[in-house]
């Protein structure tokens, strides 16, 4: 009886999982269609659309812009988010709880509202249609991921360690680089990975402030869907998914290693 | 003690907000002397130790060690953060809760200071670390992380870490009070050995037998002041201050070892 229940539950879980992921994975067969329109392959497969992706200058520049924007915005989010989390951790007062909450805000405000606000602001700063504008916006919206993961890492770290380092004559920067950061590297890495993925597949902000000069991969897909039904879109989408999966697997691997080491230490 | 004064604290006053935690505290520690500080919880012992090496900045008062006045340069002007860090190295500090760096092995914990703060080369810093750890009976634990060590072993690593910086004085803040009872003795033995080698030490502890047999002087603190001090056997045997009498009555039956 209990076993039947277990089997049923497993089937149900499998169905839910399939419902969640299959729509995403349908792009893989579509990307291999021999036809010139979006369709499931019938009568053979073809790699021509994947070829387009890596030869067509429009797609190539999309890849380049996406990688550039995601990398730079992640770097900014990491620097600011880590500094914020460490600062709050060191001060550890009521006020810093509020600061941390404020940092999470970009996660809760609907992106479209945020994009509107940033649009008005950027008009005055003359940042509309610039890569710098998108990088800054993505850095801000990626910030919460870094603050959250680094704060979680810091929760296990004793603030007294800073006192120990200072008692050995360490300066503040030395304490930061030799004692604090090495202990929260996992949180920093996770935060960076999430911030990167966030920028990598972000569309709304890019549409609002990217103007007609910037085309990231998601935006190219969006335009392609609206304008023509080139199966290269499916190839791009597949590439996006594969890349995201790869990044998440790295994150998972790092977490495993960490847990293994923690288990060994105790 | 007939040796010269090494540490001289004068008029130390420390406030946290409106609360005065230390009020006009004076203390001299002679070269090679072991001074034990006792006092009820909240009497300001930890804060006083931290004022000695400037982990806390006192509102008024001065600490001199050898010919250095903490927080001042030799020309009398205020020291900047970097100079203060250098002065702080004259003191070693051993914490109640060990405070080892969890991402480093015992050897790396001890070598980090010499390597990064003193600028010693890696091989030399590691050799120094192994030497100090061996001296504290931890030769077979050099490669272990703090999480793999018992509390007593961790505290001995912390003592080795302080020693590796070659301090003039070591300050101990209740070094055994976070330990399981069966681990206390190994740490006290290590401290006894250090005192025997002539290390100058200021020890906050309630281990009365250690105080009686090792310390040259015992100091009783209450409400942020030094109330009474003397040779341990005299102080514990014939306390004059009523607060000290009460304190000893509470302490002796439970904690003597
Ligand atoms: N950082 C701090 N902020 C505010 N009050 C503090 C701080 N550190 C210590 N105190 C207060 O100072 C008093 C003395 O504390 P402490 O020096 O730790 O005493 P002891 O070590 O003798 O138990 C206590 O009342 C404590 O609450
Ligand atoms: Mg204390």
TrEMBL record, chain A:
Principal place of residence: membrane
Pfam families xrefs: BPD_transp_1
PROSITE patterns on file: ABC_TM1
Listed GO biological process terms: transmembrane transport
Keywords: Cell inner membrane, Cell membrane, Membrane, Transmembrane, Transmembrane helix, Transport
Domain ABC transmembrane type-1: from-to ranges: 63-251
Location in the cell: Cell inner membrane; Cell membrane
Membrane topology: Multi-pass membrane protein
GO cellular component: plasma membrane
InterPro entries in UniProt: MetI-like, MetI-like_sf
Protein name in UniProt: Putative spermidine/putrescine transport system permease protein
Organism: Roseococcus suduntuyensis
UniProtKB/TrEMBL annotation, chain B:
The ABC transporter domain, residue ranges: 7-248
CC per GO annotation: plasma membrane
InterPro entries reported for this sequence: AAA+_ATPase, ABC_ATPase_HisP-typ, ABC_transporter-like_ATP-bd, ABC_transporter-like_CS, MetN_ABC_transporter-like, P-loop_NTPase
Main location, first listed in the record: membrane
Alphabetical UniProt keywords: Amino-acid transport, ATP-binding, Cell membrane, Membrane, Nucleotide-binding, Transport
Membrane topology, record value: Peripheral membrane protein
SUPFAM superfamilies for this protein: P-loop containing nucleoside triphosphate hydrolases
Keyword Transport set for record: yes
Protein's UniProt keywords contain Kinase: no
Pfam annotation, one family: ABC_tran
MF-aspect GO terms: ABC-type amino acid transporter activity; ATP binding; ATP hydrolysis activity
Cell compartment(s), UniProt: Cell membrane
Sequence similarity: Belongs to the ABC transporter superfamily.
Name by which UniProt lists this protein: Polar amino acid transport system ATP-binding protein
Record organism: Roseococcus suduntuyensis
